[in-house]
Amino acid sequence: MPGVEFMRSAESALTATSFRSEFTARIEFFAALIMGLLVIASRRIRPVTLVAVGGLFASVLIGTSWYFYSQHGS
Question: Using an 8 Å Cβ cutoff, are 34 and 12 in contact?
């Protein structure tokens, strides 16, 4: 493990702080839930449509992550 990651993990464990907010955890849970439902429904969706929806979903996740990082610093 590189030193920077080790120090961050050690600092988090020692100070008992979390780098994620509860809001972020909820968003991640719902994103995983949506992707899981998409995988379950994939037998009924054409492959081209499934790839398009997956790409759109990934783009939205990357865009919202970038927005929150640039505007709120977390």
Answer: no
Q: For the chain, how many structural domains are there in total?
A: 1
In a domain, 48, yes or no: yes
What mean pLDDT is reported for the chain?
Answer: 75
pTM attached to this predicted model: 0.51
Q: Do 61 and 31 form a contact (C-beta atoms < 8 A)?
A: yes
Q: What's the first-to-final CA gap in the chain, in angstroms?
A: 23
Place of tokens 């081209």: 48
Q: Is 63 within the bounds of a domain?
A: yes
Locate 26 and state its tokens.
Answer: 């909820």
Residue 46, domain extent: 20-72
Supply 27's token pair: 């968003």
